[in-house]
Amino acid sequence: MYAAWTVKHKPRTLSTVVGNREAIEKFRSWVESWSKRVPKKRAAFLYGPPGIGKTVCVEALAHDLNMELVEKNASDYRTAERVQRFAGLASQYGTLFGGRRLVLLDELDGVTGTADRGGIRAVIAVAKDAQCPLVLIANNAYNPRFATLRRHCLLIEFKRPTTLQVIKYLKRVCAGEKIEAEERALKFIAERSGRDVRSAVNDLQALAQGRDRLTYENVAWLSSRDRKEVIFSVMKTIFYSRSCAEAKRAVDIADVDSDMLFQWVYENAPYQLTHPSDLAKAMEALSQADLYRGRIRRTQNWKLMRYVYDFMTAGVAMAREKTKPSGWVPYRFPQRIRWLGRTKGERQMKSAIGMKIKRKCHVSSIVAVKEILPYIRIIFENNPQMRAGITKWLDLDDTMVEYLTHAKT
Ligand SMILES: Nc1ncnc2c1ncn2[C@@H]1O[C@H](COP(=O)(O)OP(=O)(O)OP(=O)(O)O)[C@@H](O)[C@H]1O
Ligand SMILES: [Mg+2]
User: Can you tell me the distance from the alpha carbon of 259 to that of 334, in angstroms, rounded to the nearest whole number?
Assistant: First the structure.
């Protein structure tokens, strides 16, 4: 599976974090002031909405100032004693090798239940006489249970970056992924995410992974919450219809293209049809739909589209026989938009290689691409000697060899 872009493209240094310059400067100068003398407030309390770079800032600053970062989050706060132990790290002097240390207690909102009172009290105790910068993070610093704690902290508010700043970051991610994206498309994603950088990056990944271009049209179908509701009711119609006619109506209300609809049905089927034989039937219907899709691609005979839709809707609806009703199972946004992975360049490359194989092996180039090329790829990756032989035999050029040796499958 793919790595999450929020992790892959996480800013390592403060200069690549977007937005919140003022908050960042305040935080940086407070941390730096420790090297002169222990400041009045020994703890800094960073707060603000989710996904805007609070955690990332602390990590990036530790990296930039070459400090050791001791980091804990909600799951570590289950007992007061644990909180105490972690927070206590901040009351020890320096680190083993004399480096400087930064202790971060992240997601403080998570200190709940039994750990709550004792936990917060332990944090307060350490905040009072920490020997190194103690950083606290929560979404809402104004929760009443932080009232006493707040008095001992330098409060630093993080705000949502502006749309332009979010776009700037999305552009950087696109550059890293070698995706050429229309400004309008990125603006759309940034606005739709409510300027939550994390969810903007997640949306970008869902929409753009595997593409080399991202246009406004590619993203606009997501335009609003209503759209999401529409696709959900389409899913409901497909998975719960009792008759073919009813299921087929899904197509009339769906406002996504057939590829997108296919992906929605395909990825949701395993969660909606939990009985194996129902799922097998649904998959069978989907594979029929896919066959017709392939035929349309090759022949451009769009009349066949009817069959694609019939299999995708009625075919899947009729699969439900043995699955027990199990309450409402949420629909999922398709994560693997696979056909997007086949970019135009890659398709051309594959068919060029397919033609070469066709000549030597006397099979159609489609069979060559589907059935022979994957094996050649494995050989190319693993056996240089055979690679040389096959290259000569098939008369492949350098770009083809490069593609076969390093392409992702
Ligand atoms: N200001 C930003 N600049 C660049 N990337 C960001 C920014 N904010 C968030 N991100 C991206 O989103 C991911 C999550 O950010 P981060 O963990 O810092 O959010 P947070 O503010 O701590 O959210 P939460 O309150 O949910 O913990 C980062 O790994 C990064 O990819
Ligand atoms: Mg965080």
Answer: 11
Residue 158: pLDDT above 60? yes
- Give the three-class secondary structure for 43: strand
Domain coordinates in residue numbering, the chain: 20-157, 163-220, 225-341, 344-406
Instruction: Please report, to the nearest 10 degrees, the dihedral formed by the alpha carbons of residues 392, 393, 395, 400 taken in order.
Output: -80
Q: Which helix (H) or strand (E) holds 84?
A: helix 80-88
Mean pLDDT of 343-368: 83
CA 163 to centroid of ligand 1, rounded, Å: 15
Does any ligand 1 atom lie closer than 6 A to the CB of residue 202?
Answer: no
Amino acid letter, residue 346: E
- In the prediction, which pLDDT does 343 show? 59
Q: Is 50 close to ligand 1, i.e. is its CB under 6 Å away?
A: yes
pLDDT band at 64 (very low <50, low <70, confident <90, very high): very high
CATH code linked to domain 20-157 = 3.40.50.300
Give residue 199's pLDDT band: very low, low, confident or very high (50, 70, 90): confident
Q: How far is ligand 2, taken at its centre, from the CA of residue 29, in Å?
A: 21
* Cβ-contact 335, 210 below 8 angstroms: no
119 lines ligand 1 (CB under 6 A): no
Over residues 169-175, mean pLDDT = 97
The atom of ligand 1 lying closest to the CA of 17 is 3
Q: Could you tell me the distance, in angstroms and rounded to a whole number, from the CA of residue 135 to the centre of ligand 2?
A: 12
Three state DSSP letters for 92-158: CCCCCCCCCEEEEECCHHHCCCCHHHHHHHHHHHHHHHCCCCEEEEECCCCCHHHHHHHHCEEEEEC
Cα of 52 from ligand 2 centre, angstroms: 8
CATH class for the region spanning 163-220: mainly alpha
Query: In which band, very low, low, confident or very high, does the pLDDT at 341 lie, cut at 50, 70 and 90?
Result: very low
pLDDT category, 13, cuts 50, 70, 90? very high
Residue 6 Cβ < 6 Å to ligand 1: yes
Q: Looking at ligand 1, which atom is closest to the CA of residue 52?
A: 8
pLDDT interval class at 337 (50, 70, 90): very low
47 ligand 1 Cβ < 6 A = no
Q: What is the Å distance from ligand 1's center to 201 Cα?
A: 10
State which of 55, 75, 186 you would mutate to test the pocket of ligand 1, scoring each by most atoms of that ligand within 8 A of its C-beta.
Answer: 55
Task: Work out the average pLDDT over 159-172.
Answer: 96
